[in-house]
Amino acid sequence: MRFNSATLSPKLAAQKKAGAVDPLWLIADREPLLAQEAADAIRATARAAGCSERRVLVLGAGSDWRQLAEAVGETSLFSERRIIEARLSAPSPGVRGAAALEQLAQTPMPGLCVMVSVPQADWRVAKSQWFKALAAAGNLVDCDPVARAQLPAWLGRRLKGEGLEATEEALRCLADQTEGNLLAAAQEIRKLALLHDSEGPVTLEEVEASVLDNSRYDVATVSTSAMLGDGARACRAIEGLRGEFTTSQVMPILLYTFSEDIRRMIALRARLDQGENAQAAARELRIFPREKAAAVIAGAKRLSTAKLRNALVVCADIDQIYKGLEVPGRDSDPWIELKSVAAFLSR
């Protein structure tokens, strides 16, 4: 079956109610935020259905693809039901990867929830045999960018999810500021939810103040310093924020900003690996202002795609820790883990 970010929720709600989850999901990631949220929702449904164990594989053309078949076929001593996430590091998995994914589509998966995430899954990817095989065998989730004409309504729904409403001019302004970058839009909505303290709707003045005052919490310093390789400065900024604000006030914004910048580096690194000019690629990816673009370029040139994707996984773990959940192998203090990510990206 084929779903998008809007039609996926009713499907998962029905499965959650039934205590079941379909075994195979293909996430076509053309919009990182929607793809991340789709994966989170599928994962939550799987856990509700009893999938208590999770394994994440980051795979590319040069990977040992036997590990995917091994992960699907292995027997666990701790859980009969498991989640397996195969995250492709590039749109093309290579010859061996394509063969492994076609084989996966034909493999029985009792007790499993297997998610295959494909970045930049455009029409060329959709025409490939392995993609068609996975889509036919399981559920395809299209995570396409939100069109500009639909963006104000999309932002309005996100704000309602935070318990807020906004004037039409405020939504138009927010759409103008965040067009083409839903991660930035989600970050701004979270900031507005934290800052808005009146009973009326969010106004144009509040949006302008929030969007334009990016240095309010000095959040940008954390990820920018890490991207530039200055781990000490990034950690000092983290400690400063920890001393000035409560965890609930600033941690969501920090994680959004960090994750957004990591995804920008991943997207830019993919362009660099294809031989594109760094500055031209940054402009096409709408990475602004100039200082931010320079930091993203520096980080993308220094860090591998695999390392960046690992950092994203840690950010997702920190989000769970912040919400009070235990993550095996991680410290229970989200601030300590955040500093470890900053140091990891600085090297």
Automatic annotation (TrEMBL):
It is an enzyme of class 2 (transferase). Its EC number is 2.7.7.7. The keyword Transferase applies. InterPro entries: DNA_pol3_clamp-load_cplx_C, DNA_polIII_delta, P-loop_NTPase. The keyword Transferase applies. GO terms for molecular function: DNA-directed DNA polymerase activity. Gene3D superfamilies: 1.10.8.60, 1.20.272.10, P-loop containing nucleotide triphosphate hydrolases (3.40.50.300). It catalyses: DNA(n) + a 2'-deoxyribonucleoside 5'-triphosphate = DNA(n+1) + diphosphate. SUPFAM superfamilies: P-loop containing nucleoside triphosphate hydrolases (SSF52540), post-AAA+ oligomerization domain-like (SSF48019). PANTHER family: DNA POLYMERASE III SUBUNIT DELTA (PTHR34388). NCBIfam families: holA (TIGR01128). This is DNA-directed DNA polymerase. It comes from Mesosutterella porci. The lineage of its organism: Bacteria, Pseudomonadati, Pseudomonadota, Betaproteobacteria, Burkholderiales. The gene is holA.
